[in-house]
Design a protein that fits this description.
Number of strands: 0
Structural class: mainly alpha
Largest sheet: none
Strand content: under 5%
Number of domains: 1
Shape: rod-shaped
Helix content: over 70%
Radius of gyration: 29 Å
Distance between the termini: 60 Å
Order of helices and strands: HH
């Protein structure tokens, strides 16, 4: 599953880089009176923005999943600390009884 994500991220990054280069090239051509029409330029900008938004949405989803697992781990860690402290208290009470303090 991780390889699929990495492959998908690589493909998405390549598409974004190619579209970015194309948009910059067409923008330079438009500035100097070149061939692409304004509608082609606008369409490529829209596709580029959709690609960026898709990438950001995907990364935010991965961060949400990671934070969910991390919060479960933190809760378990605090539960373990609470259990350890209760064991220490019972051991201290046992020591006090043996020492008759």
């Amino acid at each position: 599953m991780s390889k699929k994500r990495n492959l998908f991220d690589i493909i998405l990054n390549i598409i974004i880089v190619i579209l970015s280069a194309l948009v910059i090239y067409w923008l330079i051509q438009l500035i100097f009176g070149g061939s692409p029409s304004l509608s082609e330029f606008n369409f490529s900008m829209i596709i580029l923005m959709v690609g960026f938004l898709f990438k950001i949405y995907r990364e935010m989803g991965e961060m949400k999943i990671d934070s969910r697992y991390m919060s479960k781990g933190v809760k378990e860690g605090f539960k373990n600390i609470k259990d350890d402290i209760s064991h220490i208290k019972s051991d201290m009470n046992l020591i006090k009884k043996k020492l008759k303090v």
